[in-house]
Amino acid sequence: MATLLHLDSAVFPQGSASRDITAAFVEAWREQHPDGTVVHRDLAADPLPHLDAGSTAAGADDPLRRELADELAAADAVLIGAPMYNFTIPSTLKAWLDQVIIVGHNAGPDSPVAGTPVTVVASRGGSYAPGTPRESFEFVQNYLEKVFAGMFSTEVDFIVPELTLAHSQPSMAELIPLAEASRTQALEDARKKAKALASRLAA
């Protein structure tokens, strides 16, 4: 029985592209693997404290940090909703990372989470794809890839719904068809990825 650790960090509980797509992923996961377990943390509704001197010094002896690290280590797969806020990840997701990354305990070449598949739904209001004018402003995929592949040695895959502000920003109205196509593709990718992972881990 496989366990999926699901993190959401979008500030709005409704109307969030990242939440809609992580929800589609979880639904497909449950359909494919009904006996599996889903552990959900809503980092916006229940934010974690920022790292302080005491918890930093305590490392894995800090109860909260140990709980989060154990939760991550117990997961067979990880799903993260990471919308772009001000060119990077939400502060609540950064707080989770700061708490869960414990050098000498789970970060490094011998990480206990090495090889764990991590799927990140990296939604954004515009486009920061290679070749676009704002390519150099992309600090979500670049950062999370370095953290999860570099520090934890996990398998990282990104689903990137773009142009999510097209429907609400008049200046982006002409981009609505592209936004809808990006959302449709992201939902399809999420469902396919979830089913494939659930099948692989349940085998």
TrEMBL record:
Pfam families hit by this protein: Flavodoxin_2
Catalytic reaction annotation: 2 a quinone + NADH + H(+) = 2 a 1,4-benzosemiquinone + NAD(+); N,N-dimethyl-1,4-phenylenediamine + anthranilate + 2 NAD(+) = 2-(4-dimethylaminophenyl)diazenylbenzoate + 2 NADH + 2 H(+)
Superkingdom of this protein's organism: Bacteria
Cofactor(s) in the UniProt record: FMN
Keyword field: Flavoprotein, FMN, NAD, Oxidoreductase
Entry annotated with the keyword Nucleus: no
Cofactor binding note of this UniProt entry: Binds 1 FMN per subunit.
InterPro entries hit by this protein: Flavodoxin_fold, Flavoprotein-like_sf, FMN-dep_NADH:Q_OxRdtase_AzoR1, NADH:quinone_OxRdtase_FMN_depd
Positions annotated to bind FMN: 16-18, 84-87, 123-126
Keyword Flavoprotein among UniProt keywords: yes
Domain Flavodoxin-like fold: 3-161
Its EC number(s): 1.6.5.-, 1.7.1.17
Subunit structure: Homodimer.
Family: Belongs to the azoreductase type 1 family.
Function as written in the Swiss-Prot or TrEMBL entry: Quinone reductase that provides resistance to thiol-specific stress caused by electrophilic quinones.
HAMAP family: Azoreductase_type1 (MF_01216)
Protein name: FMN dependent NADH:quinone oxidoreductase
Source organism (scientific name): Streptomyces sindenensis
High-level lineage: Bacteria, Bacillati, Actinomycetota, Actinomycetes, Kitasatosporales
Gene: azoR
